[in-house]
Amino acid sequence: xxxxxxxMMERGVENPVPSRAQYLRVICAExxxxxxxxxxxxxxxxxxxxxxxxxxxxxxxxxxxxxxxNNFGDKLMxxxxxxxxxxxxxxxxxxxxxxAKLNLFYDCFRVGMDSFVSHSLVQNRLQxxxxxxxxxxxxxxxxxxxxxxxxxNSDLRSPSEPGILIxxxxxxxxVCEMGGDAFDRLTVHIREVIASIHLMKQCCRxxxxxxxxxxxxxxxxxxxxxxxxxxxxxxxxxxMTVHLNRRPSLEKITIQTxxxxxxxxxxxxxKGLPLEDFFLLYASMDILPQTILR
Length: 294
Prior knowledge:
mainly alpha, 3-stranded antiparallel sheet, 5 strands, 11 helices
């Protein structure tokens, strides 16, 4: 959400963010996406009862948290992205070390997931479960991996979409499947982790020289009373609207995420399911526990 807020406040204001900061922001955003997808995969694997794969994914999540802590000062990367740039730069040595560690991470993840998706239990339990049709997706305005699992290219990182970061300068093709069932959602999440690793490695190699923070002050008097933006989050699109008063100062923030949509779809798809499939479907929908509590 911090990235969404910062991008929205910077949009249309004469405060150009340096190119180097934009590359560092993409690295941070994609690392956050991988973290979210790993937690999703752990939920699915746990519902299937595959302990060895769960241990592998938990170790990968621990490795990713260490990378975030060492490079961004916080394993959740909450304080790294700032108005005008990022909190601190990563020099070429750190970027080289990060790329090398990403290569090791990729190798471990690829080996573990190749054997996982080819497991007969995984295919038998997930294929045909919780099929989301194009009609349901359109009715609920589904975005994110769930939409891409049935062939809907709704990825705002796509080069065909208006860019708000530097994804147009990177080699990226949105990941899509066609069936729309739990197995396709699993496959999209796995392939998106791999795509995020490739994006981060590209950033490490292509990042430009220069400052990582704009020294110019934001001219808040340019801000309108209402500003909106939509960003591709890990679970789907995040829409944010900020309402300002005339001073200007913050009056209200409205945030819409994909979590509520996933919960609504889950409740519709779960009707009549046996208990053993109920929890597996829940895991495959990537629903945060706090969404249910709300």
